[in-house]
Amino acid sequence: MIRASFNRKLDNTTEKLFDHLAAEQIMLTYTIEIENAARKERKAREALMELRYKDIEIQRSVTASKNAPKAIKLYIVEAKESETTVPKGEQPISWRILTTHRVETPDQAKTVVEWYSHRWFIQQVFRLMKKKGFAMEDSELETG
Q: What is the dihedral of CA 137, 139, 143, 144, to 10 degrees?
């Protein structure tokens, strides 16, 4: 499960991934609470999220190993904030997640988004460890 940050070319077509997904109908809407994030200049709010998903095949990138398959089958899930809840001057929340997990229902798509959202907690832990650390070198323990 990874976030799609590049608008990759789909296999056997000239169409791009994000354009292909944008043409799909919204399969589910739901709300989430957004916390105030000063470093991202994001205001606290209740965001209306629109969920789309699709099975796709993307081409091997030009930088990939020639031994890699020419194309790979994946699922893409997009959770994008509705323009109706985006404060003026802010960008909508938008996640495009590529996964090998089967996504055939709105509930499965929402589960993928929830799993992906846990990575924010993991990143915060790592950022805290880098900034504050555990001062392991100051520990007097000799064994676990």
A: -100
Residue 14 CB partners (closer than 8 Å, separation 6+): none
Contact, 35 vs 44, CB < 8 A?
yes
Two structure tokens written together for 104: 């055939």
Query: For the chain, what's the residue count?
Result: 144
Global pTM value: 0.77
Mean pLDDT of 33-50: 83
Angle, CA of 57, 101 and 105, to the nearest 5°: 90
CA 83 to mean position of chain CA atoms: 18
For 58-115, the pLDDT digits (tens) are 888 888 898 999 888 999 999 999 999 999 988 898 999 999 999 999 999 999 999 9
How many angstroms separate the CA atoms of 105 and 103, rounded?
6
Q: What would the two tokens of residue 46 be?
A: 């209740």
